Amino acid sequence: xxxxxxxxxxxxxxxxxxxxxxxxxxxxxxxxxxxxxxxxxxxxxxxxxxxxxxxxxxxxxxxxxxxxxxxxxxxxxxxxxxxxxxxxxxxxxxxxxxxxxxxxxxxxxxxxxxxxxxxxxxxxxxxxxxxxxxxxxxxxxxxxxxxxxxxxxxxxxxxxxxxxxxxxxxxxxxxxxxxxxx
Length: 182
Known about the structure:
The chain has 182 residues and is an all-alpha fold. The protein has 11 helices and no strands.
């Protein structure tokens, strides 16, 4: 659950969660979010910015977890498509966050469509669909990887993307001149 807590409070919300009263950190565990009233949660996470939206999302995720008694194993037994559909109904959870939770919390192999992936595939000359789901489907139907493979693929894309941001950088990288047709 510690990983889920970091996911919900950090990467999922695209900012680290900062709290106003460090001694209350123990209260900020996913299973405890619903026990706090919305105003109490907002006051704890106010320093992180966007605290109203974040608190709604955290409460939504907490309520979602309660639908299966906060048992991640129950969630892991469900089909990826069903889980993704459920996650996307939670206010504040979009495609990328849902896929992050699916892959890194619920162990579902998933291609993460993010800025780094779009940039890399574009630099490799791949025609990228504008819609998230279409790009994801294009890659997942042409790339066969297991969970560890998709995690590694995502990590490599992110690390490459941090170093190679412009076409001129790409032309000096080890992928210069390479093309990827899907």
